[in-house]
Amino acid sequence: xxxxxxxxxxxxxxxxxxxxxxxxxxxxxxxxxxxxxxxxxxxxxxxxxxxxxxxxxxxxxxxxxxxxxxxxxxxxxxxxxxxxxxxxxxxxxxxxxxxxxxxxxxxxxxxxxxxxxxxxxxxxxxxxxxxxxxxxxxxxxxxxxxxxxxxxxxxxxxxxxxxxxxxxxxxxxxxxxxxxxxxxxxxxxxxxxxxxxxxxxxxxx
Length: 205
What we know:
With 205 residues, this protein is α+β, with helices and mostly antiparallel strands. Helix content is 64%, strand content 15%.
């Protein structure tokens, strides 16, 4: 390294002091930077008590607001569930009321059907009135089928107390079994599994 004239004129002690001063000057910026970083870290780690007090009410407000949101969401869900249950109950009640009304209407109309059947049974074959009654009876059968109403009881079938009402008994004829329907006095009807009217029959002994 080249030395300037001043360095050549310095005594050994003066040279050492100059070197120490240059080293101290070089370390000052680094020390200042380290001090700034330390102050910044301290500031980030420790919050001003006044700022902490301001932050706490904000957190409380957020917690209260979230609690209200959760509360109203829960009410909305419960209301929706209650409405869905009400809708299902209403549909079931309407279906049951419709079925009950249909049964009552058919039950009230059965005596009319019985009279038409009697008229056909005693009418003359080929008579225009008889033909008219037969057409009316066919229309009734179609309407009953559309309403899912079925006739009950046929001659020769096994007696079933769930479907038949035995009003007479008769000895079994040759070739007949006992406990079967020998004659039908009044037709029965049912809708699905529910009997509207039992079939009045005569049963073999």
